[in-house]
Amino acid sequence: MSLRETFSFILPDGSDRPIADICKEYAKECNKKILFCILMCILSAALFLITLGVGTYDISIPDAIRTFFDHILGNPVDPEDDYYVWGETIGRVPRAIGAVIAGIGLSIGGVIMQNILRNPLAEPYTMGISSGAMFGATLNIGLGISLIPFLTGNYASIGNAFILSLIPLSIIVAISVFRKVTPVMMVLTGIAIMYLFDAITQIVMVTSSSETMQNIYMWGIGSLVRFNWDRIPLVAAIVFALSITLYFCSKYLDVMYTGERSAQSLGLRVNFFRVAVLILTSLLTAAIVCTTGAIGFIGLVAPHIARIFVGSVNRYLIPASAAFGVMFLLLADTVAKAMGGLPVGVFSSLIGGPLFLYILIKQRRNAWM
Amino acid sequence: METDEGYDGLIAAYRHQTLRKVMLFAACLIGIVLAVGLLSVNSYRSISLMESYEVIWNHIIGNEYPLRSNLWWADTYIWNRAMPHALAAILAGAALACCGSLMQSLMGNPLADPYSTGISSGACLGAILAIIMGISVTTMAGGGTVINAFIGAMIPAAIIIILAERIRMTPATLILVGTSLSMFFGSLISIIMVQTDPDSLQQAYLWQVGNMNNIDDFGWDCIPIMLIITVVGSAIVMMLTKKLNVMSLGDNSAQSLGIDVKTFRTLALTLMAIMTAAIVSFVGILGFVGLVCPHIVRLICGSDNKFVVPISMAVGALVLLIADYISVTVGSLPIGVIVSCIGAPMFFLLIIFSKNSGKGALY
User: Fold this and answer.
1) Extended beta strands in chain A, E state
2) Dihedral, CA of residue B277, residue B278, residue B282 and residue B286, to nearest 10
3) What does the domain layout of chain B look like in residue ranges?
């Protein structure tokens, strides 16, 4: 007779339940969570294929999917179709892959930030990363300054954006050398830096010509069109490496979730861990933001929605948010393309805003509120 | 038990505190008078600072100058150009700072400002509909933007007030709801902005940043509405300051001290929404005044709203006047940009050096 069958668990009302029952129930719960992740992955895959057939170039969805698989399998395909589906600058495959990468990165960034800052409003951009990136791009588009020498055009914008989006992080790290960094301090520093960057961006935008201003404005609204085959390998490598690293931290993140004191007494070096995770998350977000601009709301909403279905255990929450984020971003991008090529950043907030409002009003027993 | 000496010390300390508050208030008033003079000199260069006060005073008491003399021209310029500017800056600054301290006490959150409810995005959407798409509710020449912005601002405010009435909401939830509303309206704005031509985009962006173009165009016509709403609104807020002090202790304490928290919050939010909407629809979305001015005052003279509200109003008026002066002098930068350039570093320093910022509470 095994241990599980011998012992039973006494409930508050006095009756007792065998531990085996409880274990079974727990396994069932876990299966449900895994099922959610799988469902989201299947939906994402379906949307990935559907989005190939949506856009200004007229090609039906089945044709686009056929072209996609023919290209992979090396079968001959119509060159024009191939150009539009797989091609270099306006291809739909790189854009869809971009959506997958950005969806994963931003959602995981959101989960981690909400966890380490212990704040339901936190998102990957809370530290001012997006404002920094925007400021970097503004420097290049408006004033022609490149912080990394020898870069020009789009690449200079990306380089500037990457460097400046890491400024808030470096300030936090610098402060953490001298004193203990509390979550509230992190948020406030992020907000302050955000305002500073935004103020300078505003000056450049207001004083530049209207065409330049339009370019800067368009950069600021998140868009997936800047993903092309040159950039995908690098961004994908960074995002996947950091995401996997963060996934392996999920146990420690669970401990962090119990609160600072409990975490400390459970043997976690809270302050060190917080700053270390913040570095990883900032790099993850910066890699995405400097290519896409600020795509809002994914990082905020995806973790909240995933939390409704799978709860707050990070082992499940991280993959579930990532899968949901990918699904959401692909959906938003498909809608954006169907509406005549608007940037995806517009639609992610348009769908995400009301969704978030609904969650706020309906979600009574949420641990965060 | 206080000894006599301790008691005297306490009284002395209290007097010292009060003196500081009065000094700050007086300094702001002097600053405002000085800035009004400078603005006047700026509008008509060939008079001195003292002469400008003389001209203003003579106009108020009804003295007139001989037609087309130097001072007659000065009078015309100052009265038609500088004074509406100065008054608009004073009223906007006072109203926004007043609403800012109201919101921060009401929400118990140091980062709340008049725009936390999404009013700014709603107003912006209304204005942009008029600027870019030419859709407006009135046919009044030029008034379309103003009225559109006012109606736009009332939409998110109404949603949030109705929600606050219907369901039990903590201040934190209210701010979250405000954020999501402003995100939603923000995305509608972006949809319009990305599809328009560069020139309309620039015009719309300038509105969004906050500028005095309306005042330049309509002069005195803008002032009465702003004046009435600001004066009445801030008078009501002044009467509510005692209750606001209790509210900033938190919902539970306020309730147990006998305040009907829900009704009070609804009323205060409505008042704040009307005041902010009225200001914003004339001058665009001027950031930072509502957020930073109350903090500056709290840092210097504590957080008793009886003092925070009036002194913030004076500080807000002064800050906007200075920004307006710089903007008029520089010429190409709208007032909103100047405000954020002054405000952002101030906010940064405030957070870094404030001893209590780590606690995240209203100090």
Assistant:
1) 8-10, 16-18
2) -50
3) 87-359
Q: Which residues from chain B sit within 8 angstroms of residue A188, using beta carbons?
A: 111, 351, 357, 360
B345 to chain A, closest Cα gap in Å? 6
Residues B169 and B163: beta-carbon distance below 8 Å: yes
User: B162-199 burial by CB neighbour count: b if 16+ within 10 A, else e?
Assistant: ebbeeeebebbbbbbbbbbbbbbbbbbbbbbbbebeee
Helix (H) or strand (E) holding A57: none
Q: ipTM value of the model?
A: 0.78
**B334 contact residues in A (CB cutoff 8 A):** 206
- The span from the CA of A333 to the CA of A102, in Å, is 12
Nearest chain A residue to B206, by CA: A206
B122's tokens = 């709603």
Round the CA-based radius of gyration of chain B to a whole number and report it: 22
Report the mean per-residue pLDDT for chain B: 85
Hunting for tokens 């895959």 — which residue is that? A45
**In chain B, which residues have their Cβ closer than 8 Å to the Cβ of A196?**
344-345, 348
Tell which CATH classification among 1.10.3980.10, 1.10.3470.10, 1.10.510.10, 1.10.4030.10 matches the domain A18-51+87-362.
Answer: 1.10.3470.10
Q: Is B166 on the interface with A (CB under 8 A)?
A: no
- Average pLDDT score over residue span B149-166: 88
pLDDT 10s digits, B178-200: 888 888 898 899 888 888 888 88
Name the fold adopted by B87-359: ABC transporter involved in vitamin B12 uptake, BtuC (1.10.3470)
For A165-183, b/e burial (b = at least 16 CB within 10 A) is bbbbbebbbebbeeeebbb
Interface of B with A in 342-361 (CB under 8 A): 343-345, 347-348, 351-352, 357-360
Task: For residue range A99-113, list pLDDT tens digits in order.
Answer: 999 999 999 999 999
Residue for token pair 């925070």 = B308
Nearest chain A CA: its distance from B8 CA (Å) = 39
Tokens of A156: 């200079």
CA distance A2 to chain B (A): 49
